[in-house]
Amino acid sequence: xxxxxxxxxxxxxxxxxxxxxxxxxxxxxxxxxxxxxxxxxxxxxxxxxxxxxxxxxxxxxxxxxxxxxxxxxxxxxxxxxxxxxxxxxxxxxxxxxxxxxxxxxxxxxxxxxxxxxxxxxxxxxxxxxxxxxxxxxxxxxxxxxxxxxxxxxxxxxxxxxxxxxxxxxxxxxxxxxxxxxxxxxxxxxxxxxxxxxxxxxxxxxxxxxxxxxxxxxxxxxxxxxxxxxxxxxxxxxxxxxxxxxxxxxx
Length: 250
Fold this sequence. Notes:
The chain is of the alpha/beta class. The protein has helices at residues 26-40, 57-67, 82-94, 115-123, 145-162, 178-185, 196-203, 225-243, and strands at 13-19, 44-49, 71-75, 100-103, 128-132, 139-140, 174-177, 209-213, 215-216. The chain has one domain (9-243): Spore Coat Polysaccharide Biosynthesis Protein SpsA, Chain A, CATH 3.90.550.
C-alpha cells in the first residue's frame, strides 16, 4: 500500500456514503473518516439518507453537518433503492466540481483509512480504482458463508459471462475521476440493488483501472431474493449484448 506522507494531493475530492440505520456505528465511522480528512486537509463527505432508515441516523447526520461543513447531509425520500442513493450523492457532489469521487459503505464495513490509497492511484492517472477483497492484501471477514459464496461466485460468473478479468466484481468500495462519474450518472443502469457495482465494473472495463486491496470486516446484510433475481437479469442482459456484438461501455 502506498504511504500518505509521500502524497501530494493538489485536488478536490468527494466521498459518497449512503446511510440507513447506522445509529450504533455512526460515531466511530465519523471519527475515522474525520481522521482522514484531517490528515489530507481536504475532502467533502456526502451522506445520503432516505426512507430506508428508521432510526436516528438522519438526525445524527444533520447535527453533524451543522457542526462540521465537511459533511453534507442529503435527505432523499424519493429514493427507491440503493442505486438511487449512490446516484443522488454523485449528482450533488458533481455540483461542486470535485476532481475525484469515492464511494464506500458506512457502518465500518469498509476501512476509511483506505481512502488515501484510492486517492493516490487516482492522482497517478487511473480513471477507476476498484477495491478488491480477493487480491493479495485484501480480505473478507465475519460475513456469513452464503454471502461469501455470493461474492466469490458472482465474481466468477460475471467474469465468465461478461469477458471481464477482475478479481472482485462485487465490492462496493471504489473511486473515479470526475469524467467517469459524469458518464456513470448520464447512463441509466439496469441494476436496482448491489449488482450495481458489477454493472459499473463491466461498463468501465475499457478504462484505465486498477484493483487495490481492501479489508471487508463487517457482517453483510441479508441479500433479498428480489436483488438476486435482478442481478441475474442484468447479468444476462449484458451477456446477450456481448454475444450479439452489441456490447456497451462507458
